[in-house]
TrEMBL record:
One of its GO terms (molecular function) is O-acetyl-ADP-ribose deacetylase activity. It comes from Stenotrophomonas terrae. This is Macro domain-containing protein. It holds the Pfam family Macro. CDD domains: Macro_OAADPr_deacetylase. Residues 1-175 form the Macro domain. It comes from the Bacteria. SUPFAM superfamilies: Macro domain-like (SSF52949).
Amino acid sequence: MNIEVWQGDITELAVDVIVNAANETLLGGGGVDGAIHRAAGPGLLRECEQLPELRPGVRCPTGEVRATGGHDLPARHVFHTVGPVWRDGRHDEAALLANCYWQSLRLAEQMGLESIAFPAISCGVYGYPLHQAAVIAATETMTWQKSHARPSRIVLVAYNAAAFKIYQQALANAGPAP
Ligand code: AR6
């Protein structure tokens, strides 16, 4: 298994694709979304604006993913995915969050990409409990790697030391028994 945990700012990573925790408009916001747009420059917003709206204000429904270029980022591409807003855990939150990871990995494979980095989707403004989200991130990425050659490098980005520990624990628990 080759899932890495890396602590820091995802906009600094020179991988094939970084994943953005966006909202359904894909027109930017705060948190990691704001950081990615700032680092990518205005070309990213212009490209997002060109993506088709499925209905007014919705370019990407929750659980799905859309690809753009990386513009001024060291990453070549950005995948914009929309995580669920945490309510009480009984509104399909886990399945929707799992879809964000799985659909991103599938798109990376389709595009022939080798390396992908994920932030803790939904774990900021959207309120998903990090411990639970980390289990989903670990499970989805490890399950993917068991049956797919690409992307060969998967990075889970922790924004602080506490998140780093939580991710490491989740990966250890999700791994095969010794
Ligand atoms: N690098 C890596 N991780 C980061 C960074 C960064 N530069 N900045 C924040 N995080 P959030 P969400 C972590 O709120 O919960 C936006 O306004 C952060 O510590 O960015 O999915 C969108 O437009 C947290 O663990 O995303 C949506 O409206 C994680 O990234 C909404 O927020 C995700 O926090 C999406 O909310």
